[in-house]
């Protein structure tokens, strides 16, 4: 039995078709990343799965239970942990009181271990918490009853890098113990570290479900190199270089150097090839600096799951499709 199954799940808000005939399955014991640009429809799917909003059409099953049947949904929720995107606890309660409340509702098999791991403050009122501390408390309440399935909406937002690493190791351990993890994310490095498979949603429609390796092969790296002397751009046209751009920047001594020759060339491009081949090619040049970074997930959506895939499938109505824009555009 799959942990999650969606069959033609559709949510029509009237002005926005937020989920359009979405079907896929999440297997037991896998970590499945649900990815898409802002407004693509991820939270709508999650909130529909949890019964907070009703689907316009289609259905879904959580741990084999129909979400449209109240009794079955309640049964599934006994074994489910959920971390919402805009987590809000009672502002006047302390962390300890929140934990006691959650323990009384759903049980508490693991809070001791989780408190040691995530260390939220317990004796302060929630209104004094930073957003990171709210998230830490949320992770404890999500896992404290030892659920079989967890649904996490952007789980690492607000966590510092150390806590993010702890969270990653913890979630991997849970997966190894048979827990199924379904989470939404914007962050490619998080997806790389965690996911077995990913589903990508755009404009309310599922674009693909694929192993995370396939996404990573496509996504590439953003390369920025600052050379001492100009490089013939033909020399940089090697397999896997896309969107090559050149700029002029100040040399390492800065614009105050006074010399007219203080400007030096900088090249940026996305690279999807073998990084060893690139480094071998670059050995011929004298460089001041070189950076190779993870591509922003938004760029990957744009490049591989972009407008052209979907625009021609318009239904002909003048409604707004969910998530047509990609925010924070990048010049690479
Ligand atoms: N209650 C609502 N009424 C009308 N439209 C809504 C409602 N909730 C969401 N939408 C719209 O549905 C679309 C999908 O929103 P949703 O929050 O599911 O996207 P998302 O992928 O989770 O986005 P983000 O990554 O920004 O959180 C958006 O266009 C949003 O404005």
Task: Annotate the secondary structure layout.
Blueprint: E1 4-12, E2 16-26, E3 31-35, H1 42-49, E4 57-62, E5 65-66, H2 70-77, E6 80-83, H3 95-106, H4 111-118, H5 131-143, E7 149-153, H6 161-176, E8 180-185, H7 188-194, E9 197-202, E10 205-211, H8 212-219, E11 221-227, E12 241-250, E13 263-271, H9 275-282, E14 287-294, H10 297-304, H11 307-311, E15 320-321
Parallel strand pairs: 2-15, 3-8, 3-9, 6-7, 7-8
Antiparallel strand pairs: 1-2, 1-4, 4-5, 9-10, 11-13, 11-14, 12-13
Helix pairs in contact: 4-5
This protein binds adenosine-5'-triphosphate.
The site of adenosine-5'-triphosphate (ATP) has 14 residues, from strand 2 and helix 1.
GO molecular function: ATP binding; ATP hydrolysis activity
Region (Disordered): 246-266, 312-332
Organism: Natrinema halophilum
Overall 3D shape: globular
Distance between the termini: 43 Å
Query: Low-confidence parts, pLDDT < 50 over ≥5 residues?
Result: 309-321, 323-332
Structural class determined from secondary elements: alpha/beta
Count of helical regions: 11
Quote the average pLDDT. 86
Q: Assign the CATH topology of the domain at 4-79 and 148-217.
A: Rossmann fold
Largest sheet: 6 strands, mixed
User: How many strand units?
Assistant: 15
**Pattern of helices and strands:** EEEHEEHEHHHEHEHEEHEEEHEHHE
CATH class of the domain at 4-79 and 148-217: Alpha Beta
- Helical amount: 25-40%
Strand content: 25-35%
Radius of gyration: 23 Å
- Please list the strands of the largest sheet in the order they lie side by side: 6-7-8-3-9-10
Bound molecules: adenosine-5'-triphosphate
Domain ABC transporter: 4-228
InterPro entries: AAA+_ATPase, ABC_transporter-like_ATP-bd, ABC_transporter_ATP-binding, P-loop_NTPase
Protein name: ABC transporter ATP-binding protein
Region (Disordered): 246-266, 312-332
């Amino acid at each position: 039995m799959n942990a999650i199954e969606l069959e033609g799940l559709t949510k029509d808000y009237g002005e926005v078709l937020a989920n359009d005939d979405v079907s896929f399955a999440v297997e037991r014991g896998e970590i499945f990343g649900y990815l898409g640009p802002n407004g693509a429809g991820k939270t709508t799917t999650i909130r529909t799965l949890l019964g907070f909003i009703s689907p316009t059409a289609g259905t879904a099953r959580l741990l084999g239970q129909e979400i449209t049947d109240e009794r079955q949904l309640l049964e599934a929720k006994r074994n489910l942990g959920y971390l919402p995107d805009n987590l809000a606890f009672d502002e006047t309660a302390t962390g300890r009181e929140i934990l006691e409340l959650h323990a009384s509702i759903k049980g508490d098999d693991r809070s001791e271990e989780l408190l040691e791991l995530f260390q939220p403050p317990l004796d302060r009122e929630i209104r004094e918490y930073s957003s990171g501390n709210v998230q830490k408390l949320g992770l404890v309440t999500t896992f404290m009853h030892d659920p079989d399935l967890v649904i996490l909406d952007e789980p690492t937002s607000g966590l510092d890098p150390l806590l993010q690493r702890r969270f990653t190791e913890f979630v991997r351990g849970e997966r190894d113990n048979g827990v199924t993890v379904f989470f939404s994310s914007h962050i490619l490095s998080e997806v790389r570290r965690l996911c077995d498979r990913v589903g990508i949603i755009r404009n309310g429609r599922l674009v693909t479900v694929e192993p995370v390796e396939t996404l990573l092969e496509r996504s590439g790296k953003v390369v920025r190199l600052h050379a001492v002397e100009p490089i013939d751009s033909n020399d940089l046209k090697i397999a896997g270089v896309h969107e090559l751009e050149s700029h002029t920047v100040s040399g390492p001594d800065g614009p105050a150097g006074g010399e007219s020759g203080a400007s030096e060339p900088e090249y940026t491009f996305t690279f999807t090839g073998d990084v060893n081949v690139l480094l071998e090619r670059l050995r011929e040049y004298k460089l001041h600096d070189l950076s190779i970074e993870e591509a922003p997930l938004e760029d990957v959506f744009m490049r591989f799951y972009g407008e052209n895939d979907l625009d021609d499938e318009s239904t002909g109505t003048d409604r707004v499709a969910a998530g047509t824009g990609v925010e924070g555009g990048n010049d690479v």
